[in-house]
Amino acid sequence: MAAVLKKRALAEYNKSYQDGPSSKKLHLAKKPLIGSSAAAFVGLLEKCKSSDEALQLLLRISDCLQFQESDVEEAIKKLSEHFQSEEESAVRVKILWLFCDIGLECPGANLNHLVDETIHLIKNETSHKVIAQGLGTLLKLGCKLSDDKTLMQRLVAVAKENLKDTSHQVKCRCLQLISELYPISPEPDRTPDMITEANVIVKLLSDYSNAEDARVRSEAFQSLLTLHGRGLTLSADIYEQVCPALSDDYEIVREVALKLIWLLGNKYPENTVTLQDGETTMRLVDDAFIRICSAVNDLCMQVRALACTLLGTTRAVSDRFLLQTLDKQLMSNMKKKKTAHERGAELVRSGAWASGRRWADDAPGQLLEQSTVQLLPGGAAGAFVHGLEDEFMEVRTAAVEAVCELSMQNPIFATTSLDFLVDMFNDEIEDVRLRAIDSLNKISHHIVLREDQLETILSALEDYSMDVREGLHRMLGSCTVASKTCLEMCVDKILENLKRYPQDKRSTFRCVQRMGSNHATLVLPLTTRLLGVHPFFDMPEPDVEDPSYMCVLILVLNAAQHCTTMLPLFEEHTVKHYTYLRDTMPHLVPLLPIGENQFSRKQKSESAMDDSAVRRFFENVLQHIDNVTLSTNVRLKMLQSAEEQLNKLSEMEPLVTGAANFTAMFARCVLALHTALNNPAGPPAHALQNLSTDCLRLQHQFSGVTEQENACVWQLALRVSAARLIAAVESAAITTGAGAGAVALSMAAALTHHAELLDRLLVSAGMEPDPFTIAVFQQLSCGEPKPGSLARALHPLLLAAPLPQIPTPNLKIRMCTATIIEPASDNDTVLRFCAGLITGVSFEAEVLRVREPGALRVRVAYPDRRVHALLPPRDHLRPLDHQNTNDDGTENVRLLTKVLISHGVWTEPCGVDISVCLAVEEGGGREAQLVELCRPVRVTVAPKPIKRGI
């Protein structure tokens, strides 16, 4: 493995650092074996005695499909000859299939020749399957040649000729080919002839919507949708032709017709259509909306779900039809009203007798048209009511999302639909409940919750699902309640629920924080009750560590930010508790002018650091470190001082923590590397291991790093890799055995791999390598040095190399961090379980600014130095509800899982360390290394022996 990597690196470095003209690049192609060559199999087709043998041979060609460019044309010729002499239709289908695969995958294939050959072969074909496969081949090859409009016209003509076929499969392929390959010019470039021709094509496709086979009808409507998606504007005249398809016997036709109705309704909303009575007119979008509403009562579940989805995306619908979807009773004004004079004139024209009986009023029922009789109320009446009460989860979910989409656009509809969404909180399916909660959260700016609605909402807080409870917390935090009584109900229920589910503490804190900010005027009359303030007596001081009291404090303090009238109501201990919470949870408690912080806003504005001040501080700290005229000892002392100052800056200013930690860690690596190299006994193994870990942290734990800064880090890591190689070779010289030599070979392979990646990174960043990096490239390009000779050559170069350059501070750098919430660090509970079995520890952590959540691992370290890296399931990584993504592309995730612990018998309880890490691939064939993102939490475990007998 190492030798292969060295050969690759040798070729790369010879190309990069050769004086004079660059050598000719070699194109290495993997030559297929003779036994597996597709060209050889094609040559055996002539010797096949039966169709079965030919089919098996064609299958082997399809599996291999490796042709030399010079053999492609000959192979197509032989396949075509065999096609004309073959009697079995399955073999001919496979040959046309191969034509498509050869054209798409084999280099050097002439697509135009393949198209011509396919058209020629299917011209006199009689098998429907073969013709359908030929049209499919033409379709896929034509998509590759879509720029040739002449060829596209020719393929469309071929499809028109085959539309007369009696097979539904052939007709569907023809319609599909026409819709996808018909050349469509940009709208400004269209001539009258082009428009006329396009109308003819649309007329041709729409005519096949009346075909006998349902599959052809469905494909005809789908072809019209495809043409529209490619930029061809459909006329509103086909609306009347599509409407009867909504009552088709086959759901595939009704489904596609619904999409076309929705498309035309949104495309031409203000067009008018005439109803069946011949007098009443209606806007096209309203009529389309009513027809889609009727599909909510369809027999097919997929059609009902699609209808609900389309209802949510229909715009510009009149309010009277929109509101009718939430009421099962038919509206009285759905039809045009007539005056008494008009009704009397109608009676006279109809020839009514003086007795009041109308002419032919007693006609038999058989003369009534079937379309005029409806057993169930149709149209928009109660469409969403039916959708929300559907027996299938898919339909109810689509209905909830549709109501949410329409409510976001229409405040009146949002207020009317509020009761229906609240009722969905009691749905039997958790996913439907979650969708209803999220929908209410999205339309929260349109609605005000009443007491009766809050009773249903708050009852859902007792749900066993943590996702439902946290979704309700988000929804309650963003909604507005109607009165003080409503707010009091919310607070009491939240505090009661917190005692039942103490694990929801953090989500509850964020909920009451937003509730206090949104309802400052309603919190004011409840302040004395919530804080237990009495006008005459001194009440006992509450425990500031009590979660219920912390919720009340967070609620009141966030309300006081917008209503300073309640500040004089705070007692002395409340002000002290505010100071404590402000220090421990600054993201939940706002800055208030009380106690020692009466002038805090002014002080904050004066002491706030802007970017220019931070940049000047960085420049002052690092201004003389890169001064070559200074001695190495002086620069090392300055580096040590800079590291200390940057560590203090990261603690003082959270906004520049990432940049300060990045520069401080880089400086610490430079100091540690210099100390390890100048050790008389050689570089210590533990120091090199720590250096390697710090380099991995610099490479993978920080985001927002530029290519130039990343190149500096990789050059530092190259020095560390060289030092580890030197230490491994020295250890192998002292210790005799195969293990030490294998470690040295592994270190040499890692150095070669690292140098190869660094070379590409430097080229990408446009940077010149430092002297030591150039020396390493030269040593690796001289041949295939052994680990010993390479280490001996690099040792003096590494000692004589100047200190690495400290990259210029970049204030956009952010650091990936993790915070373990559960188990708590001060937990003294001993977990006892039978030795050899498994116990689960509830684990919760918040990871901020992680680039690849899939690289997160839970590290479990036992007292006997055994370490396990557990990969959490993907569904255990959830986005943080308050901040999911960042501006630099990183993610904030919440890790909620069970850590499985198992061990043998212990004589006494011991601690097991659990932490969150990143699994980092070093390359060079080595295992992934773990980079810790936080300090480990210790869990005390006591495996006890299994008791035998009863």
UniProtKB/TrEMBL annotation:
GO terms for cellular component: integrator complex. Gene3D superfamilies: Leucine-rich Repeat Variant. The keyword Cell division does not apply. It comes from Pieris brassicae (White butterfly). Keywords: Nucleus. Pfam families: INTS4_8HBD, INTS4_C. GO terms for biological process: snRNA processing. This is Integrator complex subunit 4.
